[in-house]
Structures are given as structure tokens and as C-alpha cells.
# Entry
Amino acid sequence: YNQTLISSNLILLTTIYGLCFAKLSNKLIVAHMSKTRLHNRDSCYFAFIMIIVNGYLKIFAGKVILQLALTFVVMDLSWYLIRIYVEIAEAFGIRIFSIGKQKVQK
# Structure
């Protein structure tokens, strides 16, 4: 496993971990508030698996795999948060992420 990849790109790796754990903590809060079960498998773990597998198989260059993992984690977190916001807005009857039609006065 390439240790220089981790030590030379520490900020990028820390950002990936931070965003992944931000999603997991949001899921934990939502599961606690809604009294639903929290599953132990999540799609943000795919970024970590991608980094580990690339460390052994050397599919991509060093920084490229971290950039791909960061892109995946940002998209995954964004998709999850938008989905949760829409569900909460529908439950309360609030419009978000939409622009309503304005009435034209004559």
C-alpha cells in the first residue's frame, strides 16, 4: 500500500473522511429523530474501498483516485441531503428547491 499517497495528500484524504462521516452523522440524527433503523452499509464506504483497492492494484495514479473519491463523496452527500430536505419539506407542506409561478397583475 502506498504510504506516500496518504502523507502527501493528507488534506484531501481528511476532507474525504470528514464528508463521509458528515453523511453518517446526518443519517444517525435522522434515524434517531424518526425512530427508524440505521443500516450498517452505506454508499459513502465505496470511496474508502476504492482507495484501498487502488492501493493494491494501482489502477489509477495516486492523486487521481483521491480526486475521484472526493467527487463521489461530495455527490453522495449532496444527493442524500437533497433527498432528506425534500422528504421533510413534503411532510410539512413547504416548497423548497422550486420557484413558484408569480401572478401577473394587469
